[in-house]
Design goal:
Blueprint (H helix, E strand, L loop, with lengths): L3 H9 L7 E5 L12 E2 L9 E2 L3 E4 L1 H5 L4 E8 L14 E4 L11 E4 L3 E4 L2 E4 L12 E2 L10 E3 L7 H9 L4 E5 L3 E7 L3 E2 L10 E2 L2 H11 L3 E7 L3 H14 L2 E5 L10 H7 L3 E5 L3 E2 L5 E4 L5 E5 L3 H19 L7 E5 L3 E2 L5 E10 L5 E5 L16 E5 L5 E2 L4 E6 L2
Parallel strand pairs: 5-6, 13-16, 13-17, 14-15, 17-21, 19-24, 22-25
Antiparallel strand pairs: 1-12, 2-11, 3-10, 4-6, 4-7, 5-9, 8-9, 18-20, 20-21, 22-28, 23-27, 24-25, 24-26, 26-28
Helix pairs in contact: 1-7, 5-6
Length: about 400
């Protein structure tokens, strides 16, 4: 067996380069950006009015002038106006270009207007040159990167793409993954299971996670038959970027998956990790670069491995920043075997925002229902047996 740290290192040494494609801005939400989004002009592109009011020359105010005649009105979307008489003002609206020969804006709340005459009614001793003006290029200069590639496109990034005229955006191609569940005891969800059978659930849980992370997926159920498993593996290696198998990787008489994978040219990079749950975890790579995660069949094991290992592999392959979350135990917990233990925990937050992790008692790696009571797995290292309240460990959130 290898350690969790060794397994992670091997997995992250075998990430992949993802091809790119252009998509319409309407279809880009949630995709991974594959190009920098740069300012096509200054942001803002002109000295912009930020308050409705009047634009004047500050020097006139400094000289003691408090009454101004309105010379013109400048609205957002109008061409730039020019103040002709420096003792006058121009009425301006938010978003308008600041008129030439003016250098400050006084808001309506500080004014009294009677027909075409404006009188200051506020203490102007604190007024300053440039107030209520958003200077040209103060946000971004022409050519400056606003959104770097490798960012998942949220509504804010879509807004930036629109404002720089990106009708089409270069994004990473969606990875294609097939989820393969194996087992004679598993029947389709549409069937009523016999006393010795269960409905397939792992495939749907894994597929839902993959869809949530932006992958295109298929979900397949196979019997414990080595010939059939090998035939499908050979087919899927050529048509998918990633194979995720659930079940058939232990040391049982009908655990055909490891041998079937190796028979089809998938190189084993490791098999078995010193962890609970998920010890029989198998990882490898096919001749054409297709990556294979063969996970144990128990539902908690397979779900934990996907969230602990596959998600990290995916983020690094997509060049996404991956900040490790940490959770603080809210009570003591003991675990004796010399294995890394992934503790199911309920997450809450302290007033300071600190992540608090409360153990959720379950009934082992087959307790699928217990996953709905918890929110995350807390990684407890194999170097200790007693994990004390207040200690902080890696947290892998799945909710």
């Amino acid at each position: 067996m290898i350690t969790v740290e060794e397994a992670e290192r091997i997995i992250l040494e075998n990430t992949i380069n993802i091809a790119t494609e252009k998509v319409s801005i309407d279809d880009a939400l949630g995709r991974i950006l594959a190009e920098d989004l740069c300012a096509d002009r200054d942001f803002p592109p002109f000295n912009r009015v930020t308050m409705d009011g009047i634009a004047i020359q500050f020097i006139q105010l400094k000289a003691g002038q408090t009454s101004f005649e309105i010379e013109a009105t400048a609205a957002a979307g109008n061409p730039q106006k020019t103040l002709q008489n420096t003792q006058n003002c121009i009425e301006v609206m938010t978003g308008a270009m600041i008129p030439l020969n003016t250098d400050m804006v006084i808001r309506y709340e500080d004014l009294s207007i009677s027909r075409k005459t404006v009188q200051l009614v506020a203490d102007y001793s604190e007024f300053r040159e440039g107030q209520n003006i958003h200077p040209q290029s103060s946000d971004r200069k022409t050519g400056e990167v606003i959104v770097p590639k490798g960012r998942k496109l949220s509504p804010s990034e879509i807004g930036v793409a629109a404002t720089i005229g990106k009708n089409e955006i270069l994004v990473q191609r969606k990875l294609r993954a097939v989820v393969i569940s194996t087992g004679e005891e598993i029947v389709p969800i549409t069937e009523k299971p016999l006393p010795h059978q269960i409905r397939t659930s792992n495939g749907f849980a894994l597929q839902a996670s993959l869809k949530n992370w932006g992958l295109e997926t298929e979900n397949v159920l196979l019997p414990d038959n080595q010939a059939i498993i090998e035939k499908k593996i050979a087919e899927f290696i050529e048509t998918f970027d990633v194979l995720i198998l659930s079940g058939g990787v232990s040391a049982g008489k009908f655990d055909f998956v490891p041998q079937a994978l190796e028979n089809q040219g998938v190189k084993k990079l490791f098999h078995k990790v010193s962890q609970r749950p998920g010890k029989p975890f198998w990882f490898g790579k096919a001749h054409n670069g297709t990556t294979v995660f063969a996970l144990p069949g128990n539902p908690v094991s397979t779900f934990m491995c996907l969230n602990r290992y596959f998600k990290n592999w995916l983020d690094v392959s997509q060049c996404l920043e991956n900040h490790q979350l940490m959770g603080e135990l809210t009570e003591d917990f003991k675990f004796k075997p010399e294995l890394t233990f992934f503790l199911q925990v309920k997450i809450s937050y302290a007033p300071t925002g600190k992540i608090l992790a409360t153990p959720v008692e379950g009934h082992g790696s087959g307790d699928l229902a217990n996953l709905v009571e918890a929110d995350a797995f807390l990684e407890l290292p194999l170097s200790q047996e007693l994990f004390k309240k207040g200690e902080v460990f890696k947290a892998f959130m799945y909710r």
